[in-house]
Amino acid sequence: MILSLLLAAQADTTRLPPAQPIPAPDFETANILTPIQQLFATFEAGDSAAMLRLIHPEGRVTATGTRATTSGLRQMNWTEFATHVTPTTRFQESISDPAVEIDGDIAMVWAPFVVRVGGKVSNCGVDHFDLVRDNGAWKVMNLTFSSRTTDCPAQ
């Protein structure tokens, strides 16, 4: 009897801790990030026409930081921004650790970014995207970003 109790006690100490359930996938967050990833693909392809299909035409792009004007801000509408997205000015942008907030038909994404040109880091900062759901599809309304050329991640 004592032997079986000792074996039972020993077995309990070698058990794995209780499994933690894996949270269900957050499909709405994935739906929010999809047009942003598609937007980045248009930058890399230099395809401004495809870019304009992903945005809401009433939106704006606002830049701050070292790549902005002397006042610290550079603003343009999406059509003006599209003139910078060409096959000869292609660039790769990626974000990491996005914070996503959603309420009904509006969403916000805040994430650090890195831009590479020719595989080399060009600049970095933080992107802030405002998105709206228009006719059932998420569109990027506004993009506001900081920009710097120092202290950027190397990867």
TrEMBL record:
SUPFAM superfamilies: NTF2-like. It comes from the Bacteria. Pfam families: Lumazine_bd_2. InterPro entries: FrzH/put_lumazine-bd, NTF2-like_dom_sf. This is Nuclear transport factor 2 family protein. The lineage of its organism: Bacteria, Pseudomonadati, Pseudomonadota, Alphaproteobacteria, Sphingomonadales.
